[in-house]
Amino acid sequence: MVGVFFLQRSFHRATPSLSGANGYGNPLLSYASNWSLWAFYLSSVIRWLSCGTLSVPDQTPDNSAVWLVSTSETSDVYRREHRKNKFSTTSDIRMYRAIVQRGYKAEDPESTLEVVDKPIPSASPGHVVVHITLRPVNPYDLKLVRLGLVAGKHSFPVTVGSEGFGIVHSVGEGVTTVKPGQRVIPMTMVAMEEGNGSWQEYVSLKEEMVLPVPDTITDEAAAQFVVNPWTVIGLLRDIGVPKGEYLLQTAAGSVLGRQIIQLAKHKGIKTINLVRRPEQKEELKALGADEVICYTSEDVVSRVKEITGNKLAYGALDCVGGDVTKLVAASVRGGGHVFVYGSLASRDLIVSIPDVLRGVTVRGWSLLVEWVLPEKRKIYSQETLEYMESKVIQPLAGEKFDLAQFKEAIKKSEEVGRGGKVLLVS
Q: Based on the structure, what is the number of domains in the chain?
């Protein structure tokens, strides 16, 4: 009944009077000028009946319609046929789905996320439009949502997403490095700061931000090409642990922690790995970890002294924060460094004064500092490609969710012992 009432009202609004304003004196001309608007109303009612969503266009004097279709929180996964053949008053417009954040609510940031339909962009000169098919749910992306670090800077809806994998949809004038149909990595970390991240089906990027993918790398690995591998490469380079010495790290069971184990093993660096659950020990040792300590049930400092012959670790990497950082700093030898690159448990750091007096330094490390330099991006890309092709670094893919199921994907990504990286697919 509601749908019929809406349709009747819509047709009434769309049909001008025989002697109405704006030059609608000829009824045949009036009907012809509104055929596409009627078609849109009909398709909207069909979508409402099948998906539970409906939006009303704003009627403007020139008879054009502008609309935005959003999914409800309880809607089923979008059926692909519902995204085809959406009409405008001038021509058919191909649409795509995007997860957007509208504004910021500190008490419930994720309530501002929703899926909307947007028109596929055209490729401007020097730009590439990529059809993104896979993108991971990274802790950094969730941090931006929950702290409003992107949405809070803009008055318009923004899309996060720091990396992904896709296929070239179209290229603009002057683009020579990629072509339509080619497998690529859209490097969206910079574009994300302007609200144009990878949590959408299409994105337009500068040519230099689109990296071709060789056939030797799977789609799932390519979707995780940037954030974790580049961070691992940069951390191990800057911490400077010599071959044969011990590196201590927290969150060793994470996807990034596993990659640290893999690359450190390749470089001849021994690792002491802190985990929360004892059942992770054997799995990480099979991956190449030298030592694994469950910090929730073992005396970390005593175990590190035992492992290193009282020398303690040469350096440490921490992404947890809080009291765990205190344990980490106490496990590093005098004059050693602790690099903090995340805040999984706390945004605060706790360090004992005696450890500071021993010369242990705690400093932050961020990939964003490296990312902005084109020459650094080139080096990271080359090294990551070599490590992935040689299987030194092997990203672990986990459960996949449709783009419209982003809330379930976010929940899964934060489960303890979830396995590999959660991916949003489209």
A: 3
